């Protein structure tokens, strides 16, 4: 996972701390806490609980995959980014869909001057580890290197807080929160009926739990909708957007490596994509890859 002892240099990442840690090692990030949790949860509690807390890939990763992952970290530290990329890609190809791997893969791609694939890897890491500061910092820096930069609307402090909360929680976490609030509401309702002497307390808790349920349910619904919209990253130097699905249609715009788009339709090897600004057009499917 992360190895704090190795840095990739001051040319990438936060200005005050240089590049965010070059690699993450399973044996460090997990450490003793992970081993204790894995032993107690996996062996003593229902396996589904372990998967929900630690993630299915982290729980069931084989020693061979962990060794291959750490070998990729060694190649990265040695400056052999092609070998590091190969190792990380092999780990993913063998079924370990883990945010830590995508994070390191993004670092290796960036160092190898493959901006589009670096951004793609960071986006995939962020989907698996929402709110992770290292991923967000490197993704923000990588996006700053793009040719195409969309203007960000200025938002107030309240909007920023709400956005941060929304980004922090995963779909799984929100689903668990909704279930917890439902059971809590049921428990408080039972207390209201059978322990009437403290109805003021139960009433207050009921208001809190209902509010929590409505808030988490709304976030879950919105986040599920956002995840249902396929997104992709441009991987070629320049992708021409046209007014229809074919090379004979009028050119509408040109997108460059690293640009993020939403996919609305697929037709004969062409994709109807749309930018955050609302501008849309058809580009060849071979020019991008889905997140």
Question: Quick recap of the structure?
Answer:
The chain has 291 residues and is α+β, with helices and mostly antiparallel strands. Helix content is 56%, strand content 12%.
Write the layout of secondary structure elements.
Elements: H1 26-29, H2 31-44, H3 47-54, H4 56-60, H5 63-77, H6 81-93, H7 99-111, H8 115-128, H9 133-143, H10 157-168, H11 171-194, H12 199-228, E1 231-234, E2 238-242, E3 251-256, E4 260-267, E5 270-274, E6 280-284, E7 288-290
Antiparallel strand pairs: 1-4, 1-7, 2-3, 4-5, 5-6
Helix pairs in contact: 2-3, 5-6, 6-7, 7-8, 8-9, 11-12
pLDDT < 50 runs, ≥5 residues: 3-21, 25-34, 49-54
Which fold name corresponds to the CATH topology of the largest domain?
Serine Threonine Protein Phosphatase 5, Tetratricopeptide repeat
Q: C-alpha Rg, in Å?
A: 23 Å
Tally of separate helices: 12
The CATH homologous superfamily of the largest domain is called: Tetratricopeptide repeat domain
What's the overall average pLDDT, rounded?
79
- Secondary structural class: alpha+beta
Biggest β-sheet: strands ordered side by side in the sheet = 6-5-4-1-7
Q: What does the overall shape look like?
A: globular
Give the class-level CATH name of the largest domain: Mainly Alpha
* Share of β-strand residues: 5-15%
Biggest sheet, in brief? 5 strands, antiparallel
Number of domain units: 3
CATH architectural label of the largest domain = Alpha Horseshoe
* Topology, number of strands: 7
Distance between the termini: 21 Å
Helix content: 55-70%
Taken in chain order, the helices and strands follow as: HHHHHHHHHHHHEEEEEEE
């Amino acid at each position: 996972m992360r190895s704090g002892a190795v840095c990739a240099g001051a040319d990438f990442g936060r200005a005050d701390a240089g590049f965010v840690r070059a690699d993450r090692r399973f044996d460090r990030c997990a450490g003793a806490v992970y081993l204790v949790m894995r032993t107690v949860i996996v062996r003593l509690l229902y396996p589904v609980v372990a998967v929900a807390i630690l993630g299915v890939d982290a729980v069931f990763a084989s020693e061979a995959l962990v060794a291959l992952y750490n070998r990729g970290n060694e190649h990265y530290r040695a400056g052999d980014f092609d070998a590091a990329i190969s190792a990380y890609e092999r780990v993913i190809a063998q079924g370990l869909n883990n945010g830590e791997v995508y994070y390191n893969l993004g670092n290796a791609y960036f160092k190898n001057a493959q901006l589009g694939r670096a951004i793609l890897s960071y986006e995939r890491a962020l989907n698996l580890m929402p709110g992770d500061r290292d991923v967000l910092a490197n993704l923000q820096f990588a996006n700053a290197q793009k040719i195409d930069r969309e203007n960000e609307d200025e938002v107030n402090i309240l909007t920023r807080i709400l956005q941060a909360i929304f980004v922090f929680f995963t779909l799984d976490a929100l689903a668990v929160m909704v279930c917890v609030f439902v059971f809590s509401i049921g428990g408080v309702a039972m207390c209201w009926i059978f322990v009437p002497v403290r109805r003021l307390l139960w009433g207050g808790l009921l208001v809190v739990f209902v509010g929590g349920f409505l808030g988490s349910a709304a976030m879950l619904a919105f986040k599920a909708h956002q995840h249902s919209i396929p997104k992709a990253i441009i991987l070629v130097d320049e992708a021409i957007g046209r007014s229809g699905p074919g090379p004979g249609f009028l050119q509408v715009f040109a997108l460059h490596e690293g640009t993020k788009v939403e996919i609305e339709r697929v037709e004969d090897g062409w994709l109807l994509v749309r930018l955050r600004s609302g501008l849309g057009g058809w580009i060849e499917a071979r020019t991008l890859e889905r997140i």
